[in-house]
Automatic annotation (TrEMBL):
Binding site for ADP: G155, V156, S157, R158, T159, S160, K161, T162
Matches recorded under InterPro entries: Kinase-pyrophosphorylase, PPDK_reg
Protein name: Putative pyruvate, phosphate dikinase regulatory protein
Organism for this UniProt entry: Fluviispira sanaruensis
Domain of life: Bacteria
Keyword set includes Nucleotide-binding: yes
GO MF terms, alphabetically ordered: ADP binding; ATP binding; phosphotransferase activity, phosphate group as acceptor; protein serine/threonine kinase activity
Family, per entry: Belongs to the pyruvate, phosphate/water dikinase regulatory protein family. PDRP subfamily.
Amino acid sequence: MLKQTDTSVPNIFTVSDGTGETAISIVRAVRVQFDHADIHIERFNKIRRREMLEEILLNARNKKATVVATLVDPELRIFLISRSMQLGVKVVDVLFPLMETVSEQLGRRPSAIPGLLRQLDEGYFKRISAIEYTVRHDDGIISSDLAEADIVLIGVSRTSKTPLSMYLGHKGYKVANIPLVPGIEPPKELENIDQNKIIALIIDPTRLAEIRAARIEALGTDDIGDYADIEKIFEELEWSRKIFKRNKRWPVLDVTGKALEENSVEIEKIILSRFPELMDE
């Protein structure tokens, strides 16, 4: 268990699957620029498993620490990026931007890197790009590149849009998710993209009420209006179904009682049947 530190002092975690000397050197070089300001540094070396990263990221969230990473294992790095985004932990990736730039300039992928468990390939870079796109388009964040999405998920609050988006993003799909708010029409931007990319999500009203009640409890507040009221939820879901019926090309997926992986498989089947070229990317 890591001890708590003074919250007024910046916390930096250096994380590496090697010795960590590169990350430590960079942090020290930065500190010099601030007249050797008081910065609390915790060093984590030889990180080789996701479970180790998970513990570090949870500690980083609790201490509001910035993670400075020099991971070269592509699988660990993908996990670090996706999980840190979910937890809201800031990560500074030291190696990847330079590796990507050099790779573009040389016209070939990195290889023969000490400690690399799997050779970096186009699939790796594609997944990183997909994760970054998915995070930028989470929970209704609309931008000019919405048409680049491979999948667009739409549904009322707490229908697994974000977890499904992140899971599919980790698999290499660019995913945007759009929340439906009672009484407000879906954003006009949806009309300008290929409607075959859009998948509507629905859930059992009683189960949705349970999920929302648990969410309210987790937030530690009861000032959420009728967010978890079963009658309002019935109305909200009925309203969303009417919107879905207006859009005949939107398949409706019921996520009730199914694991994240199961719903993900169903979404993939739908999308790949409509866009088989994604299977080859």
